[in-house]
Amino acid sequence: MAWDTDATREKILDAAIAEFSERGFSGARIHQISQNSACNRERIYFYFGGKTQLFEAALTHQLVTALDDLPVIGSGPEAIADFAGRYFDFSRSRPSLARLTFWEGLERGHPVGAEGRALHSSNKVSEIRAALPAISEAGAEDLLLAIVTLCHAWISTPNVHLVITGEPDEERRRAAIMRASELLAFDAGTD
Q: Which sign does the torsion angle of CA 35, 39, 43, 49 carry?
């Protein structure tokens, strides 16, 4: 019987995403990833090389999924607000991306897999520029950064919104992020 390498890699990656997002790079254990994926440690090292490369693969996989699965649809500030709302929904349904980027910033001090991630980010910047023809490249980058940061903060720092608003009102937060993104898009598109 042939070995299903794609399925094995996927099981390892899913277990790694869960472990790293819960415990961070330093707290995650290859043994636990091995156990949760039902794959031996040797398979993990064979497919990914080591803990650092596995963390990079987990984070890159989550980011690529978010950026590729959520296109900017339409044009104008409304299209940007719609993208921000869908990115917020994605972040809520898959909190591992926000948590992984949070751990990366705290523990790694530099972006892992930056080259590949930058390519996907630049594709999203191009989509923003297509939706807002008057926006500069730097303006589109700043707008994407603002949207991602606002959405990720909801997931990775839940204590902040509880202190400020007193309750975790996700619909209110989604509407606020969409409105802020729309206003930023309007402002950036009229420079």
A: negative
Tokens of 13: 């990656």
**Secondary structure, 3-state, 23-87:** HHHHHCCHHHHHHHHCCCHHHHHHHHCCHHHHHHHHHHHHHHHHHHHCCCCCCCHHHHHHHHHHH
| pLDDT score at 3 | 63
Instruction: Using a pLDDT cut of 90, give the percent of the chain over it.
Output: 55
Listed residue (102, 77, 105) closest to 159, CA to CA: 102
The Cβ of residue 161 has, within 10 Å, a number of other Cβ atoms equal to 17
* Residue that is written with structure tokens 């650092």 in the block: 52
DSSP states of 148-171 = HHHHHHHHH-HHHHHHHHSS--HH
Type of residue found at 128 = I
Residue 168's CB is within 10 A of a number of other CB atoms, namely: 11
